[in-house]
# Entry
Amino acid sequence: MSDDTPSARAAEASHGAAADPLIRVTDLRKVFPAPRGTKGEDVVAVDGVSFDLMPDECLAIVGESGSGKTTVARMIVGLETVTAGTVTVLGQDRTSAPRSLRDRRVRAREVQYVFQDPYSSLNGRQRIGDVIMSNLKLHGAAGDVRAAAQGILDSVGLAQRFFDRYPRELSGGQRQRVAIARALAADPKVIVLDEAVAALDVSIQAQILNLLSDIKAERKVSYLFISHDLAVVNQISDRMIVMENGTVVDQGGTVELLANPTHPYTRSLRAAVPGPGWKPVRRERLAS
Ligand SMILES: Nc1ncnc2c1ncn2[C@@H]1O[C@H](COP(=O)(O)OP(=O)(O)OP(=O)(O)O)[C@@H](O)[C@H]1O
Ligand SMILES: [Mg+2]
# Structure
């Protein structure tokens, strides 16, 4: 499968050999056992999921709520144990959960995670500049850490005056820029963006998507972009996989798949993509 992705083909054309995937997951499975002492059933959240994330690629994982997108991502970064299957990151086996703090740091340098709600993922008592400086130091930055942090904030469009502010003093879009800046401070190869623009207004969403595209071009970082919103995925991803009930039911180039969705589930997701001029209210109505 890795040999036939658009990115692999491009790499093959330019280097004469297929590039190695940054992330490879094979037959990934996650079962959440029913809580002890209850009559509930085990939840098979992810079942037989396989895909590659190639260098310089934005791969989207799409699917409705509960389809297993976040669980896949959490297994990749070691926040969730793997029931079966394998996770390989930069050629290293990362199937087992990190065993030590050091192990956790090494893995955080490979893959950083940006969550949907930066309010809860940012420490409210830490100033913005400190958020970035701490992650720089944690990942071994040398030299003038303050200047480096200012440079990163600048690269996400946050002026110097934000350096001493607290997260509560920022808008949602600005907070998400801070979350992206914090991820960049680790200089990762991959950033997992889990519904990273879902909580933002459409105009702010567009700004953040543009920012992510610029960062990707400048830093050669790859994205695993999780979203339930095909309109958003259409703007940013090169390739997408479609999940339903824990399994991959469809995959392909974003443009091709959205233009000609063949699987009924992809078609139904496609049908829910709002037309031009849509309002969130209208989208809620569509979803209900
Ligand atoms: N810690 C947990 N314990 C038990 N079940 C869980 C746990 N985490 C997730 N699940 C279940 O696993 C399934 C997949 O959840 P997951 O969060 O991966 O979905 P998702 O596609 O990210 O959904 P959303 O779009 O709403 O974020 C769901 O049925 C969910 O209820
Ligand atoms: Mg999720």
In short: The chain has twelve helices and ten strands. Strands lie at 23-32, 43-53, 58-62, 84-89, 92-93, 111-114, 190-194, 222-227, 239-244, 247-253. The two ends are 36 Å apart (CA to CA).
